[in-house]
Amino acid sequence: MKTIRRLAFIVLATAVLGLGACGKQAVSTPDAPTAAVAAKAPLLVNITSGKNDLHAVSMALGLAKMAAEHGHQVVVFLNVEAPIFATKDLAADVRFADFPPVSELVAGALAKGAKIIVCGHCAAVQKVDTSQLLPGVIVSDHGQLLDYLQPGMIGVSY
Predict the structure, then answer these.
(1) For the segment 12-59, what is each residue's pLDDT rounded down to a tens digit?
(2) What is the CATH number of domain 31-157?
(3) Backbone phi, then psi, for 155, in 5-degree steps?
(4) Cβ contacts of 48 within 8 Å, gap of 6 or more
(5) What distance in Å separates the CA atoms of residue 42 and residue 71, rounded to the nearest whole number?
(6) Helices (H), 2-141
(7) Rounded distance between C-alpha atoms, residue 118 and residue 85, angstroms
(8) The whole model's pTM is what?
(9) Which residues contact 67 (CB under 8 A, 6 or more apart)?
(10) From the centroid of its chain, how far is CA 4?
(11) What is the CA radius of gyration of the chain?
(12) Sequence spans of domains, the chain
């Protein structure tokens, strides 16, 4: 019984110490040194959702903007139903609940340095005129998307 208690104590202590270390790594400050910013993993945000799931779209674009603000290199890939969100004439009422309009979220991510890439094939299927995309948005096929992927890139999909 004593051995089991010691083993449980060791496991618990290791878990607590591990959580403490994770907490330290998760804390960041806006004044982080440039070397620390450069060491942050790049992020790929893959958005396939359309107007039927504005919650997912808003969460994805919010994450992209926040990651770019915190020094991550960000690539947003709008495909399947999502190319519509990069158009110049997207209505301001395209939004989820109390989130900003999707058009503002896209513009904000672009302004913070995120690369926004639209799948050309998906845009054609969704009847999105690529000449009506926001300035700075890149039209790509899947082969060209590979040029923007980087070693160590973290991917999230919405």
Answers:
(1) 333 333 333 333 344 444 555 455 545 799 999 999 999 999 999 999
(2) 3.40.1260.10
(3) -115, 135
(4) 79, 80, 81, 82, 157, 158
(5) 9
(6) 2-26, 34-38, 54-69, 102-111, 120-125
(7) 9
(8) 0.75
(9) 43, 45, 74, 114
(10) 44
(11) 20
(12) 31-157
